[in-house]
Structure formats: structure tokens, C-alpha cells
Amino acid sequence: MNIPQLAIVIPCYNEELCIESTAKRLLTLLDELIDKGKISNSSYLYLIDDGSVDKTWEIIEGLHNFDNRVKALKFVRNFGNQKALLAGLEGVRELGCDCAVSIDADLQQDENAIEKFVEEFMNGADIVSGIRNDRKTDSFFKKWTALMFYKTMNILGAKIPPNHSDYRLVSKKALDIMNLYPEKALFLRGFFNESGLKTAYVNFDVKPRFAGESKFNFMSLTTLALNGITSYSVVPLRFVAVLGFFMALFGFLVGVETVFEKIFLHNSPNGIATTIILLCVFGGIQLFCLGIIGEYVGQVYREVKARPRYLKDKELR
Ligand code: UDP
Ligand code: MG
Predict the structure, then answer these.
(1) What average pLDDT does the segment 47-72 reach?
(2) What predicted TM-score, i.e. pTM, was given to this entire model?
(3) Residue nearest to atom 8 of ligand 1 (CA)
(4) Does the C-beta of 141 come closer than 6 Å to ligand 1?
């Protein structure tokens, strides 16, 4: 293949403190890679403003006027990081590129790994996944919830490597395949992992956020995790069925035992406390299971409505 055209996709939500120095650093990186002959000089950045309410968009406009290689898209409101990423990948597919790298606006992921990403791409990989060396910069809570999430996903059958992130390179071919998936809530980590395309892994270091605060909170992380599970596994639904079966079996056996005692031993068991406890336990389990089923019904509900994944406000090309 000739020298590839690289597009760098950067989702930004209220990143006024980061975006300028990040864009400038990445432009310098593009220049360095162009000088080394690794990427073509038509390579560019694609910033997605995910409905920021601060000065992010004004700064992006300034950057675009400063250097036309900074292209951008603005959402009408906040749609969340996954939708911004998706819009970015769809956008660069439309604008044209041979490969696209997604990276966070705070440059927590070591941007120098992009060179290795491109090398792996040139060696034939369609997906190059960034794997973090450690989670030193994450809070104790985030570290453990993330670990539990990947463990759960693996148990449920969606094999996503732990310490995986949305820092990755995807080829034009991978973008074309992604385009065939009509799912509204496409879980990118799951999709790229199960697509079967040739994948390479590159380790990278995570740095602390250099300005501003994390844009994720407990709720958005929970939503991301639940979407990941319900998009890529039906094991929880089977778990509900199996649990129901064993509960029924247990009830049946206790019933047989009670009748046996009544007929042959003439003692009817008493114990109002036991009854209340069982009622609460089984009632709780039933509600829990209904909740699991509800998550899937919700997923179906959202997909069936087929609302647009995101709404564009402005674009800078
Ligand atoms: N982000 C976004 N929309 C959101 C939340 C976050 O586009 O609703 C972007 C954010 O600007 C950043 C990336 O997603 O570029 C990762 O967010 P952040 O660094 O806050 O997450 P963390 O590193 O703490 O996981
Ligand atoms: Mg970050």
C-alpha cells in the first residue's frame, strides 16, 4: 500500500482547558509522522464537540482557521462519549481516510503510540487496540469497577481483553464493516472485538489528565457497562430462566416434604417468620430477575424506536 492517510478522531465534551494544546500536539505529531514518511500529508484531525456548554467549539473554530487539517463536527446537545466516537468514525469514513485512530481530548493515552499503531496497520492489521500498561491514574473505585466489568463480560461470553480502551486504530475496511451495523447503541469495544478482523495489540502508558476533570460519572459508566452487557450477551436472560427453574424445584421439594410430614407424622409445620423470610427472598429474586429482563426490553425499546444516534449542529471541513 502507498503511504496511508490517517485521521485522528477526538471526542470533546467541555474540554476548553485541554483542546487547544491537544490539537497542537497532535498536529505536530502528524508533521513528525509525515516527515518520517509514515503517513500521507493529507492526514488530519477530526474533533467532535459532544454538545459542550463551555468555549470548546469557539476554540475548535479558531483551530480550524489556524490549520485546515483540523476538521470538526458539533452535536446539538450532549449524546455521550460513545456516540461522539461513532460520529467521528462515520465522519472520517465520509471525509476519506485509510485508517483512523481515536484518542481522548485530554491526551491521557500516550499519543506516541500512534506511530506503532500505523506500523501494525501497515503490517496488515485492520484493528490495532491500545492496551493500557496499568491503571495507576484511575481511582480505586474506577479500577475495580472496570476490572469487574471485564471479568463479567468474559464470563458472559464477550471476550474483551481487560485494560482495553477506546484508544485504537481501525482501517477503512473496519469502518466499512462498522457501517453495516444498524444498532443505535453500538458498543464499539464489543463490536471491534467480535468483528473477526485481524487485530494487533499495542501497549501504551496512561498519563494523568493534564487539565480539567473527568467527564464520566457513576451513572454514565453504569449506562456504558449495562449497554455493553445487554448488547453482547444474553447469558443474564438464561441465568434468570435457570434460577427460576431451581427455585421452583426447591419449592416443589419443600411442598412434598410438608405433605409427607402432615400425612405420616401428623405434625403441620408452623413458623410465620420462615414464611415471611421466604416471601421476601423470593419476591426480591423475582424483582431482580424482572430488572434483568427489563434491561433487555429497554434495549429493544430503544432500538425499535430507531431514533437517530446523534444530531449534527455544525460541521467544519
Ligand atoms: N467525552 C465526550 N462526551 C461525554 C463525556 C466524555 O465526548 O459525554 C469525551 C471527553 O471529552 C474525552 C473522552 O470522552 O475526550 C474521555 O473522557 P474523560 O477523559 O473525561 O474520561 P476518563 O479518562 O476519566 O475515563
Ligand atoms: Mg480522560
Answers:
(1) 96
(2) 0.86
(3) 80
(4) no
